[in-house]
Amino acid sequence: MQDLDIAGQVLASDICRTSAAMQAADAGIVVPRVANEAYLPALLDAVEQHDVGLLVPLTDLDLLLLAKAREAFARRGCTVMVSSPEAVACCRDKLRFDDVVAAAGLATGRCVTLAEFRDAPFYPCFAKPIDGSAGIGASRIDNEPALDAHVARFGSDLVIQDCHDGQEYTIDVYRTRAGEIKTIVPRQRLVVRSGEVEQGLTVRDEALMAATRQLVDSVDGLWGVMCCQCRRDPGGEPYFFELNPRFGGGAPLSIAAGADLPRYLLQDVLGRDIGRSVGDFEENVLMLRYLAAICVDIDNPASLRGFDATIFK
């Protein structure tokens, strides 16, 4: 950013070069899948080779791995925007996170393992993988046959929760390395598709913002951009069910409303004053998302994923 008097490039990493992010970035780096033991060494090599000063994970898949490897990256001159391993672990485990919400003095519903649910079922309920991500395997369940079908598809390592209807929110937060919260922006999720918000609205709700602060401040070791998710009846108390210690998919809405999360991160890493307060954002900003196409020339079409057999997601 020129006004911060810094120069550099944005590099994107993915498992293949047919990633849209790679086309938008200044350069792309192909790495193995997160589950591959070669992933972390490849990322460390890339950081060293390209003199990367800041690494920003955008999915849940490698958060714990990166949290445990923070010092290895630091020795290469790279800061990883990731919370402590303990904070990441309790946020990633849905059962542990429910205990965190209760310890923060916030409202909770029933949250049990599949085995506990079988002993004392309650419908409707909401089922999700204990360490789930991106809404995969998360669904409302209305009866036992539907639950059996869900288990057959997604496995039995599930958490079962009360099904809270009503409004759903994602709240974007920036917390400095010194532990100071600089922004809290509630976004009402109006329309969701495949776990991602398609239409969202910024709202200025002091009670919701206060509850979010109460939750975030109760977890030691949280740092950087994060997003909390909750549901509530209109005017009622929120039931938090997620705290994702990373950028949320709908963060562009908060940025458009004046909460410049990437800028705050850069200022924090550079040791500069962010100079913002929690309420510095515009309310009633509506985001309407749509698919966009990126078209590029390819030298070797046969090398593309999906060339021999279509990939369905």
Number of strands: 14
CATH fold description of the largest domain: D-amino Acid Aminotransferase, Chain A, domain 1
- Named CATH architecture of the largest domain: 2-Layer Sandwich
By CATH, the superfamily of the largest domain comes out as ATP-grasp fold, B domain
Q: What's the number of helices? A: 11
Strand order of the largest sheet: 13-12-9-10-11-14
Q: State the end-to-end distance.
A: 36 Å
- How many domain modules? 3
Which structural class is indicated by helix and strand composition?
Answer: alpha+beta
> Which term fits the overall shape?
globular
- Helical content class: 25-40%
Task: Indicate the proportion of strand residues.
Answer: 15-25%
CATH top level label of the largest domain: Alpha Beta
Largest sheet: 6 strands, antiparallel
Weakly predicted, low-confidence segments: none
SSE order in H/E notation? EHEHEHHEHHEHEEHEEEEHEEHHE
Averaging pLDDT over every residue, what do you get? 93
Label this structure with key terms.
single chain; 313 residues; alpha+beta; Rossmann fold; Dna Ligase, domain 1; D-amino Acid Aminotransferase, Chain A, domain 1; six-stranded antiparallel beta sheet; four-stranded antiparallel beta sheet; 14 strands; 28% helix
Characterization of the model:
- This protein has 313 residues and is α+β, with helices and mostly antiparallel strands.
- It contains eleven helices and 14 strands.
- The chain folds into three domains: 2-81, Rossmann fold (3-Layer(aba) Sandwich); 110-162, 2-Layer Sandwich (Dna Ligase, domain 1), CATH 3.30.1490; 165-288, D-amino Acid Aminotransferase, Chain A, domain 1 (2-Layer Sandwich), CATH 3.30.470.20.
- The strands form four sheets. It has a six-stranded antiparallel β-sheet. Strands 5-8-6-7 form a four-stranded antiparallel β-sheet, with helices on both faces. A two-stranded parallel ribbon has the order 1-2.
- A hairpin with a 6-residue loop joins strand 12 and strand 13 (239-244).
- The longest helix has 11 residues, at 39-49.
